[in-house]
Design goal:
about 100 residues; alpha+beta; 5-stranded mixed beta sheet; about 35% helix; about 25% strand; globular
């Protein structure tokens, strides 16, 4: 699974959310639910922005926001600990 993470996103992941690329890979590997489409207008992209909630190998729960390009590249937009609303949405619609 080829990941693409821009330098700006890497800095945000490191400085603001303290998330590593390894944790993102672990979340993809540990995912049990499905991908949800980002429906908020300000976050829509082409191709669609998708997201899911999963845990790292150390049980850290993270929301992973990404774009899956037609060539198979996964572009990470953000990854961070989900809030309760996001957890509720994913529990209702992601499993």
């Amino acid at each position: 699974m080829p990941l693409k993470i821009s330098q700006d996103v890497r800095e945000k992941l490191d400085q603001r959310h303290k998330v590593t690329e390894d944790e993102i890979i672990e979340c993809f590997a540990n995912r049990t639910g499905k991908y949800l489409d980002e429906l908020r207008q300000q976050h829509q992209t082409n191709p669609n922005t998708l997201w899911f909630v999963s845990e790292t190998d150390h049980a850290r729960k993270l929301k992973v926001v990404f774009i899956q390009h037609p060539d198979g590249v996964i572009e990470i937009k953000s990854t961070f600990p989900p809030n309760q609303t996001e957890l509720n949405i994913y529990t209702r619609h992601g499993y």
